[in-house]
C-alpha cells in the first residue's frame, strides 16, 4: 500500500497474461462467501499510453475485460430448466437473508482489516490526535458489537430452506412446472451461487444442455484493480414464489446504511493516517532504533512503546533543532515573522548583493544571477577579503605618508626658524645700515653746503678777479702758489684716503672671496647636484671681480684727472672757464661711471640673490664695496672742491622694498640703493 500510492492506477495493475493457471482455474468459485457479482464495463475511449519515467516500471499493457453474457438473458434460465416466474418474482425475497449475511461478513472482514490498519498505525507512529483515534476505536468496537448482535438476530430469524417434498409430480416431461426438489435445492444452493458468479453452468447441466463456451473473464489477480462497477446480485429462491417484506430488516437497512457511511468515513480517515504514517516512516526510518528480541518478547506492546519512545525522542530532537534554527534565523536581523519569510528575505538580499556586485564590477563575475546563496556568500566574502586587504595596504600607505608629512613639517619648521633668525639678523643689519645712511646723508648735506659756499666764493672771486685783474695778478700768483700748496696737501691726503680705501677694498675682496668659498663649500655639502649652477655663479663672480677691477681703474683714471686738474690749477686764473667745463665733463663721467657701477652691482646682487639666497656675507661685502667706493669718491670730491657730494646725495636717497624668494621659506635681505 505504501509503495503503490505514488504510482498511477495503470501501473498498480498486473498483466492479465501473467495470472497463474491455478488462479484462472479457481475463478469458477467465489473468493469469499459474499455473493457479489462484478460486471465489467468496456471503456468507450481509445487505449491510452502512459509515459513512464526512468525510475518507474514499464507499461502493463492492460486491456479491459469484456463480458459477453448477462444474467438478464432469459435463454440462460431456460437452458438451466428454470421457469420464468422463478427468475422474475421470488428472487428479492430469497436474496435478502443471504445479502444480509454476506453484508455482515463483508463488514466483519472490513472491520478486521481496519483493526489491523489501526494496530499497524499505532505501531508505526503517533502523529495526530490520540483522543480522536481512541474515539474511532470506540466507534469501531461499538460497530463490532452492533454487528455481532445483528448477526445473532439474523441467525435466529432466518428460516431454513423449504423442500417441497409433497409437490405434485407430473408425468409429462415437457411440463416446466414439474420440479425436482433435490435437484432444485442442489441447483440453488452453493453450486447455484457459484454458477451465478462464474456465469457458467455446471458439468451435469452442460452435459444435458449444450451451451456456448465460457466468455466470462478470469478473476482478477489479488491486489489488482479493474474499471468495474458493483451490481446487486439477483438470487432465486426455489421455496418461495412471492416477495414478502420483512419489517425488521427494513428497519435495519437505514442503520446498516449509516454504519456503512461511518465505516467509509473511518476508512478515509485510516487511509489518510496510513498515508501519513507511511511518509513519516520513510522519513524517520534512518533514525529509528531496532528493538532487541528480549524487548519484543517481553510484552505485546513493548515494540510499540519502544517505537513510540524513539519517535517521540526523534520528534522532540527535531523540534528542538527546528526551534534553534528558527531562533538563529530570527537573530540574523532580517525581516519576517517566521523562518520561511526570513529565508525569502535572505534569498532576496543575496540576489540584491549579487546585482550590486554586477553593477560595481560589470563583466568580471562569472557567477550567474540565479546562483545559490552559498556561492553568492563565498563571492561576497572573497570580495570583502580583497577590500580588507586593499584597505590595510591603503592604511599602510597613509601611515607612511603621514610619517613623511610629519618629517616634512619638522624640516619646514626648522627652515622657518632658521629663516626667522636670518630675518632678524638682516633686520638688525638693515637698521645699522639705515643709521649709516642717515650719517651719510648728513655728511652729503654738509658737503653740499660746502660746495655751494665754494661756488659762491668762485663767483665772487671771478667778479673780484674781473675788477682787480691788473692790480691783484701778483697777489693772485702768490695766492695761487699758496693754494697750489694747499691743493697739493689736499691731493696728498686724498691719495692717502684712496690708498686706505684700496686696502679696505682688498680686505673686502678677501672677505668676499672667503665668504664665497664658505658659501660654495656649504652649497656643495647641501646639494651636490648643483655643480653646474655653482660653476656659472663662479664665472659670474669672476666677471663681477673684473667689473670691480675696471671700476678701480676708473677710479684711478679719475685720480689722474684730478692730478691733471691740480696741475692745471696754476693756470686757474687764465683758464677758469675751461677748467669749469672740464670739471663738468669729469662730473658727468664720474656720474656715468657710478651709474654703470651701480647697475653692475645691482645685477650682481640680483644674481647672488637668485643663486644663493642665504649668503648674507656676500651682500654685506657688496655693501662695503659700495661704501668704500662712495668714500673714495667723497675724498676725490674733497680734493676737487667737493663737487661730487651733490651727486652722492641724489644717488643714495631711496630704498628698495623687502622681497621674498620662492625657495624653502628663506628671506632675502633688503637692499640699500644709495652707495657713496
Automatic annotation (TrEMBL):
Q: Which regions form coiled coils? A: 104-153, 409-504, 541-607
Q: Which GO terms describe its cellular component?
A: cytoplasm; myosin filament; myosin II complex
Record field: compositional bias (Pro residues): 210-221
Q: What are the alphabetically sorted keywords of the record? A: Coiled coil
Which residue ranges does the record annotate as region Disordered?
24-60, 73-99, 199-231, 613-676
Quote the biased-composition stretches of kind Acidic residues, using this chain's numbering.
666-676
Gene Ontology MF: a single term? microfilament motor activity
Basic and acidic residues bias locations: 613-626
Protein name (database record):
Uncharacterized protein
Q: Give the taxonomic lineage as stored in the record.
A: Eukaryota, Fungi, Dikarya, Ascomycota, Pezizomycotina
Amino acid at each position: 500500500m505504501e509503495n503503490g500510492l505514488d504510482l498511477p492506477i495503470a501501473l498498480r495493475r498486473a498483466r492479465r497474461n501473467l495470472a497463474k493457471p491455478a488462479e484462472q482455474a479457481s475463478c469458477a468459485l467465489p473468493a469469499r462467501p459474499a455473493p457479489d457479482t462484478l460486471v465489467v464495463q468496456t471503456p468507450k475511449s481509445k487505449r491510452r499510453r502512459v509515459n513512464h519515467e526512468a525510475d518507474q516500471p514499464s507499461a502493463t499493457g492492460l486491456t479491459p475485460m469484456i463480458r459477453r453474457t448477462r444474467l438478464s438473458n432469459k435463454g440462460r434460465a431456460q437452458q438451466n430448466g428454470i421457469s420464468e416466474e422463478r427468475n422474475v418474482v421470488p428472487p428479492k425475497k430469497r436474496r435478502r437473508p443471504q445479502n444480509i449475511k454476506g453484508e455482515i461478513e463483508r463488514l466483519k472482514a472490513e472491520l478486521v482489516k481496519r483493526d489491523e490498519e489501526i494496530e499497524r498505525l499505532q505501531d508505526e507512529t503517533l502523529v495526530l490526535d490520540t483522543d480522536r483515534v481512541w474515539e474511532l476505536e470506540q466507534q469501531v468496537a461499538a460497530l463490532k458489537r452492533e454487528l455481532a448482535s445483528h448477526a445473532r438476530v439474523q441467525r435466529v430469524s432466518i428460516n431454513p430452506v423449504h423442500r417441497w417434498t409433497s409437490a405434485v409430480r407430473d408425468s409429462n416431461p415437457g411440463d416446466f412446472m414439474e420440479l425436482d426438489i433435490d435437484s432444485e435445492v442442489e441447483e440453488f444452493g452453493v453450486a447455484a451461487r457459484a454458477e451465478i458468479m462464474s456465469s457458467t453452468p455446471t458439468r451435469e447441466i452442460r452435459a444435458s444442455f449444450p451451451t456456448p463456451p465460457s466468455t466470462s473473464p478470469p478473476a482478477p489477480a489479488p491486489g489488482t484493480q479493474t474499471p468495474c462497477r458493483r451490481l446487486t446480485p439477483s438470487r432465486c429462491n426455489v421455496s418461495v414464489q412471492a416477495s414478502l417484506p420483512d419489517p425488521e430488516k427494513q428497519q435495519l437497512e437505514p442503520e446498516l446504511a449509516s454504519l456503512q457511511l461511518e465505516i467509509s468515513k473511518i476508512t478515509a480517515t485510516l487511509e489518510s493516517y496510513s498515508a501519513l504514517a507511511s511518509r513519516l516512516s520513510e522519513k524517520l526510518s534512518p533514525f529509528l532504533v531496532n528493538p532487541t528480541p528480549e524487548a519484543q518478547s517481553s510484552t505485546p506492546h513493548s515494540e510499540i512503546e519502544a517505537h513510540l519512545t524513539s519517535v517521540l525522542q526523534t520528534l522532540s530532537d527535531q523540534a528542538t533543532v527546528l526551534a534553534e534554527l528558527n531562533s538563529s534565523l530570527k537573530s540574523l536581523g532580517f525581516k519576517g515573522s517566521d523562518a520561511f519569510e526570513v529565508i525569502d528575505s535572505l534569498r532576496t538580499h543575496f540576489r540584491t548583493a549579487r546585482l550590486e556586485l554586477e553593477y560595481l564590477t560589470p563583466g568580471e563575475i562569472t557567477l550567474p544571477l540565479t546562483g545559490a546563496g552559498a556561492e553568492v556568500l563565498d563571492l561576497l566574502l572573497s570580495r570583502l577579503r580583497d577590500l580588507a586587504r586593499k584597505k590595510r595596504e591603503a592604511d599602510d600607505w597613509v601611515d607612511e605618508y603621514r610619517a613623511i608629512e610629519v618629517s616634512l613639517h619638522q624640516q619646514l619648521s626648522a627652515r622657518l626658524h632658521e629663516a626667522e633668525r636670518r630675518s632678524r639678523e638682516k633686520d638688525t643689519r638693515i637698521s645699522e645700515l639705515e643709521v649709516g645712511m642717515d650719517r651719510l646723508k648728513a655728511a652729503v648735506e654738509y658737503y653740499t653746503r660746502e660746495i655751494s659756499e665754494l661756488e659762491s666764493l668762485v663767483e665772487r672771486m671771478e667778479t673780484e678777479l674781473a675788477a682787480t685783474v691788473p692790480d691783484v695778478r701778483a697777489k693772485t700768483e702768490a695766492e695761487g702758489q699758496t693754494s697750489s700748496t694747499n691743493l697739493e696737501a689736499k691731493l696728498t691726503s686724498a691719495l692717502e684716503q684712496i690708498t686706505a680705501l684700496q686696502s679696505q677694498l682688498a680686505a673686502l675682496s678677501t672677505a668676499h672671496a672667503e665668504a664665497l668659498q664658505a658659501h660654495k663649500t656649504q652649497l656643495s655639502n647641501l646639494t651636490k647636484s648643483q655643480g653646474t649652477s655653482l660653476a656659472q655663479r663662479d664665472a659670474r663672480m669672476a666677471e663681477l671681480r673684473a667689473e670691480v677691477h675696471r671700476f678701480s681703474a676708473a677710479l684711478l683714471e679719475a685720480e689722474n684727472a684730478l692730478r691733471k686738474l691740480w696741475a692745471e690749477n696754476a693756470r686757474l686764473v687764465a683758464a677758469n672757464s675751461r677748467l669749469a667745463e672740464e670739471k663738468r665733463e669729469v662730473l658727468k663721467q664720474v656720474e656715468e661711471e657710478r651709474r654703470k657701477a651701480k647697475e653692475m652691482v645691482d645685477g650682481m646682487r640680483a644674481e647672488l640673490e637668485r643663486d644663493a639666497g642665504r649668503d648674507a656675507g656676500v651682500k654685506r661685502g657688496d655693501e662695503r664695496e659700495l661704501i668704500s667706493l662712495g668714500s673714495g669718491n667723497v675724498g676725490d670730491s674733497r680734493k676737487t672742491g667737493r663737487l661730487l657730494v651733490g651727486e652722492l646725495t641724489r644717488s643714495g636717497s631711496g630704498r628698495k622694498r623687502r622681497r621674498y624668494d620662492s625657495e624653502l621659506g628663506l628671506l632675502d635681505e633688503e637692499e640699500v640703493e644709495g652707495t657713496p
